[in-house]
Amino acid sequence: MPLRHSIQVGLSFGLTSGVITTLGLVVGLAAGTASRLAVLGGIVTIAVADSLSDALGIHVSEESESVHTHREIWASTFATFASKLLMALSFAVPVLVLDLPAAVLASVAWGIVALATMSYHLARLQGVKAWPVVTEHLAVAATVVVISHYVGRLIASVFA
What is the percent of the chain where pLDDT is above 70? Predict the structure, then answer.
């Protein structure tokens, strides 16, 4: 059971971070640059760099608890890295196949579906009502999207 828990920790953290961070990046870069290349480059960069960073963060966090085995710690580390990397890279698909405004909308829709699904599953595992958990997580995502959009626009207006 502890190994399964370690994998769940990594997956839930990686998927959530993959959605929130990448969605904020896509929306912010699109608003600030209107450049498909900048958005795509940002997605790939964050997929690699932030996945490694989050994996190390989980690794250190799990080590600091002093209750996990070496194997459990590495299971959380790898699950975080793999889930964050794949989730972040999934946002490249709309950018590759759609024009940028449509890709941003598709990314927001994909992020909502992915986060809501993960949140629902998490609530069910915890035996709590799903809608408060889903609503809370989507509210955080919406806040990130709105703030990122306006930060991107602000940067564009200051430096353009």
Answer: 99
